[in-house]
Automatic annotation (TrEMBL):
Stretches that traverse the bilayer: 7-29, 49-76, 88-107, 119-139, 151-171, 183-202
Annotated keywords: Membrane, Transmembrane, Transmembrane helix
Signal peptide annotation: none
Pfam families assigned: DUF2306
Protein's UniProt name: DUF2306 domain-containing protein
Protein species of origin: Paenibacillus dokdonensis
Length: 218
């Protein structure tokens, strides 16, 4: 098994477990997000819980779509042999990213951990769609290698929630900090960490497009 295939299989396993975990929390454990909302103190703007919950549910549904459609399009068979499916699925991914971005834009001002977290999420809400649009522009210019790189950068952002929650858990248990302080630190570590991981993936596991022998540039 090649490194790329091994990495892809591991990624699918992580996505599967993450989707199950979010579904468990959202449907069974805490459908009204009472626990998470309980950490929102000293908000700059009053929070309408009904609208926030509706936005968050739309956010999660389209986050799922972006995770799944992104994973499908990274499969080498889909890339090489099913170009039409890859293209259609790619547009689904772009639309999902935009909707997750829009809902994120609504939720960011009320972020747990305060203003600094709101700013970090707002930055991510701009760079994630930007990476995705750059990837789209690159493929329209037939720059396959560059398209792959920007898609890896874009897809890395799909793991924000997973990374933030994992880090919050570890920081909180290791330091004894409050949930909002641990969450704030996690958001500030997660965003650069995911961007660095994307660069590592581009240079290692995803370096060579399997079975693609077209000339590459960019
Ligand atoms: C694609 C995978 C993603 C999933 C599954 C996901 C899921 C969630 C969930 C379940 C929440 C509710 C709070 C919680 O329990 O964490 C949430 C909140 C939020 N998400 Fe996402 N999300 C994803 C990606 C993103 C991305 C890429 C951004 C930024 C562009 C983002 C921005 C936000 C914001 C701003 C909040 C509100 C945070 C707060 O209130 O403190 N999410 N997300």
């Amino acid at each position: 098994m090649s490194n790329t295939k091994r990495f892809y299989t591991l990624m699918l396993a992580v996505i599967f477990l993450f989707i199950l975990y979010i579904a468990y929390v959202q449907i069974i454990y805490d459908p009204q997000s009472t626990g998470f909302l309980g950490f929102k103190t000293n908000l700059l703007h009053p929070l309408n819980t009904t609208i926030w919950l509706a936005m968050m549910r739309v956010h999660v549904v389209f986050a799922y779509i972006s995770l799944i459609s992104g994973a499908v399009n990274f499969a080498s068979t889909i890339c090489r042999k099913h170009r039409k499916l890859h293209k259609l699925n790619g547009y689904i991914y772009v639309a999902a990213v935009m909707i997750v971005g829009l809902t994120s834009g609504y939720m960011a001002p009320y972020a747990t951990g305060g203003r600094s977290v709101s700013i970090a999420f707002n930055v991510l809400t701009m760079i994630w769609p930007a990476f995705t649009v750059i990837a789209l522009i690159q493929i329209r210019k037939k720059q396959i290698h560059s398209h792959r790189k920007w898609m890896v950068r874009s897809y890395a952002c799909c793991f924000t929630n997973l990374t933030v929650h994992l880090l919050t858990f570890f920081i909180r248990n290791a330091s004894g900090w409050s949930y909002p302080a641990s969450y704030r630190m996690s958001v500030y570590i997660s965003i650069p960490l995911l961007l660095i991981l994307a660069e590592i993936v581009i240079r290692t596991a995803w370096k060579k497009p399997e079975g693609m022998n077209r000339p590459e540039s960019a």
